[in-house]
Amino acid sequence: MIMTENTHPTAIPSRVLENLSNAVLLFDAALRLRYINPAAEMLFGGSARQLAGLPLDELVHSREQLLPALQEALRSGHPFSKHEHVFELLNGQEMTADISVTVLHENLSQPEILLELKPMDRIIRISRDETLVSQQSATRELLRGLAHEIKNPLGGLRGAAQLLEKQLVDDELKEYTRVIIDEADRLQKLVNRLLGPSGMPKMRETNIHEVLEYVRNIVTSGEQQDIRIHRDYDPSIPDINADPDLLIQAVLNIVNNAIQALGERGNIIIRTRVMRKFTIGQQQHRLVLGVEVIDDGPGVPADIRDKIFYPMITGRADGTGLGLSIAQRLVQQHGGIIECDSMPGKTVFSIFLPI
How many Å apart are CA 155 and CA 219, to the nearest integer? Predict the structure, then answer.
């Protein structure tokens, strides 16, 4: 049964429920769905007619056992709410939401449950992105100051070693000054890599798939053992205003990171999609390009998962920890952001760029 405006004694106008941004679901005493508003239809990926009559435990799977709590509410008649409750939906997608449960029993032979879901994933992601952008900005300022403090004495040290080398006659002693000069040059290169590319991006109309194909050709031309790169492109994506060279560098860093994580064999998927009304930081964009680099490797170690975009943070003994930091900086220069979601068997790096 699909509830309409005239079928429920509480007489909540259907036009009110249909225009709410939160998902609203009504269950009978057996916890079978009687009504679902349009926001909930979008959330569950089905129409009211398709979902009506389904039991709660088929609609959602909850880590915290929501079903017993609803059964207790039906028994006691007491409403309750939960903050940031984690569900798994019918399509296997995981969702975090604030929930509010109200028991309806006035003029009814049997009580009913009104369940309101306020998805928090978007709010959590926006908060996480704001933190990430703020941390990246603070890190850049720290690196600039550090580079200034290192470069000046480093230049003096190198110059003094060169002058000393000219005064020495013994070739064996000159070897020591050569070590000083070489190490000073190595430190100079490391500082430059920490700072990343300098200058403003040279923006022009750019086809993202040309960028991705260029990266794919680079990585497949080398010896990558038994690693397969699959493409899942949306051909309808329009050109974006970007610096293609900087985007190539950013995507290449991410793909190389995935290859190194896989080792000798595995799969990488490069996927493109368009999101509508998508928020990056605090700004909502009408259209946003999403590029996903997905690998089936062991995943990012839990102890560095929240720090992988910091410079010098790496899960590999031979890693420099600069690739992802530089990639994040290059994407942020385009008004975008990179996010990471990782678990054993599936790591997803998502690049979001305004269209």
Answer: 36
- pLDDT category of residue 89 using cuts at 50, 70 and 90: confident
Amino acid at 23: A
Q: Give pLDDT tens digits for 202-218.
A: 899 999 999 999 999 88
The string of DSSP letters for 116-157 reads EEEE-HHHHHHHHHHHHHHHHHHHHHHHHHHHHHHHHHHHHH
* Statement: the pTM of the whole predicted model exceeds 0.85: no
* 314 in a structural domain: yes
What's the rounded mean pLDDT across residues 138-145? 69
Domain of residue 53 covers: 14-119
CA quadruple 6, 12, 13, 17: dihedral sign: negative
How far apart are the C-alpha atoms of 257 and 266, rounded to whole Å? 13
Return the SS3 of 229.
strand
Residue type, 272: T
- Residue 256 sits in a domain whose CATH number is 3.30.565.10
Domain boundary among 195, 219, 248: 195
Give me 229's structure tokens: 């790169």
Q: In what order do the strands lie in the sheet with 94-104?
A: 33-36, 23-27, 112-119, 94-104, 80-89, 60-62
Helices (H) and strands (E) in the chain, counts: 10, 13
pLDDT at 75 over 50: yes
Q: State the pLDDT confidence band at 241, using cuts at 50, 70 and 90.
A: very high
User: Is residue 7 in a domain?
Assistant: no
Mean pLDDT to the nearest integer, 322-326: 82
Please report the pLDDT score of residue 278 as a whole number. Answer: 80
